[in-house]
Design brief:
The protein has 80 residues and is an all-alpha fold. It contains 4 helices and no strands. It has a domain of 48 residues: 434 Repressor (Amino-terminal Domain).
Length: 80
């Protein structure tokens, strides 16, 4: 399954990954060495997790994160 993360809030992404891995909040918290409240608060958007947390979550849930350049975005490719 593929989805564009920029179309979702960070808390929605976390919940989506966890649920698709068929994990409870408690199971994910234990795997991350964090509290269940940490997972719950992040899924509700009350806290913001760090990028390194997202990488750990992806590894635990066997999810691949791919960064792509925007198709229609213009980049300045001039050399200095």
């Amino acid at each position: 399954m593929e989805f564009k993360a920029n179309e979702f809030k960070p808390n929605e992404i976390l919940k989506f990954i966890r649920q698709n891995a068929d994990m409870t909040q408690e199971q994910l918290a234990k795997a991350l060495l964090k509290s269940k409240n940490w997972v719950k608060n992040n899924e509700q958007g009350l806290n913001r997790y760090y990028f390194e947390d997202l990488i750990k979550i992806a590894n635990i849930c066997d999810v691949e994160i791919i960064f792509k350049e925007k198709q229609n975005g213009k980049r300045n490719k001039e050399k200095a």
